[in-house]
Amino acid sequence: MAIQSIILHELNIDANAGTLKLRLRDTPLSVTPSLESMLSDLTERYNSRTPKAHGRFNPESESGFAASLNLMLQGEQTLLALSTALASGLCEGFNKAGALQSGYLLFADYKAGLTHYLLIAMLPGTTSITVNDQLEITDSEYMDLSKILLATRINLTEWQGNVQGSRYISWIKPGRGQRLADVFCELLGSEETGDTRNDSQKLVKALDAFCEEGETGDAPSAIKQKAYDYCLEKSDAGAQVDIESLSAHLSEEEPDNFSRFVNLRDYDMPTTMQPEKRQLQKMVRVSGRGKGISLSFDAALLDDDTLSYDPDSGQLVINELPPSLRKQLDEIV
Q1: What is the mean pLDDT of residues 276-282?
Q2: Residues 225-264, buried b or exposed e (16+ Cβ, 10 A)?
Q3: pLDDT tens-digit readout, 281-314
Q4: Which residues have CB under 8 Å from 330's CB, separation 6+?
Q5: What's phi and psi for 38, nearest 5 deg?
Q6: Which of 16, 87, 147, 240 lies 20 to 30 angstroms, CA to CA, from 279?
Q7: Using an 8 Å Cβ cutoff, are 229 and 212 in contact?
Q8: Residue 280 pLDDT
Q9: What is the C-alpha to C-alpha distance for residues 105 and 12, in angstroms, rounded to an integer?
Q10: What are the Cα distances from residue 330, in Å, to 67, 116, 171, 316, 326?
Q11: Are 174 and 98 within 8 A, CB to CB?
Q12: Rounded CA separation 175/50 (Å)
């Protein structure tokens, strides 16, 4: 990872006025090993967070952010100027929406491999207790990377290389704080064109049908495990999964077998996506609970004699009990 520029601003709640106030930094942060480690940790956490939305800059938006970003890429504007304008807009927008949330606004312009990114994140500040050199206990505030409030990442390489693209922006869909997210997306001028959860569900459905219809000579569990491992590797790296590349990975002899299968059926699935791990796990793990029973096992066990399931009677038979489970049963019964 190569950091081009990184800067931090802060939003604080003015208790007396009942509004947010912005504290701006006037210079970029110095790039140090600690800063590189922090950004690496943050990008890993961003990659693993779900659900995410994908989209593009709305050509009808009046935000002006895309034009300013383009000026930055042409060297006519700095990240400092870009971040100051957006941070000011966020502060004003949050106040108007009554969404009073304090936190740090981080702007990171960096490259990972051959891909150029801009990551914008809002992170909360958290107070912890530390011990100093004199063995005195003091309060210390730090930026909590584990609790990302808002975040978006723009694939600048893809955007510049294909202005007609529709999935070069990703952002975390909030479980709470929808007003914050609405203001954020409005100022960015982004519009949603895809959703990781829906895309993942369609991919799992397509792979299930692909295996059920006997489009491959391998065991269904082996194909699904292969697809899961490939998608997980891409997801951990924050990379998109290309259906044609996945198809080639599933079969060297017939590299276009799965992609052709998808194209001939109406799955309404994008050609590239960033699958959600939780949805992908349904291909390789079977789990459920109810009436005091909780079960979870590898789907591959249904392909051998370890487990057998009768769909007519709804009975699942465990032919080979795990030794630890058998021991507990022998002690109880």
Answers
A1: 83
A2: bbbbebbbebbeebebbbbbebbbbbbeeeeeebbebbee
A3: 888 888 888 777 888 878 777 777 788 888 888 8
A4: none
A5: -60, -45
A6: 147
A7: no
A8: 85
A9: 11
A10: 71, 60, 52, 20, 6
A11: no
A12: 10
Please give the C-alpha separations between residue 293 and each of 96, 290, 296, 327, 333, in angstroms, as whole numbers: 50, 5, 10, 18, 17
Say how far apart CA 152 and CA 52 lie, in whole Å.
9
Chain centroid to Cα 291, Å, comes to: 34
The Cα–Cα gap between 103 and 9 comes to 9
Report the C-alpha gap between 144 and 231 in whole angstroms.
28
Q: What are the residues whose beta carbons fall under 8 Å from the beta carbon of 35, sequence distance 6 or more?
A: 3, 6, 29
Instruction: State CA 119 to chain mean position distance.
Output: 12
Residue owning tokens 């890429």: 73
Residue extents of the structural domains in the chain: 2-188, 197-282, 284-332
**Which tokens hold the place of 127?**
């107070």
Beta bridge partners of 316: 309
Distance CA 288, CA 296 (A): 7
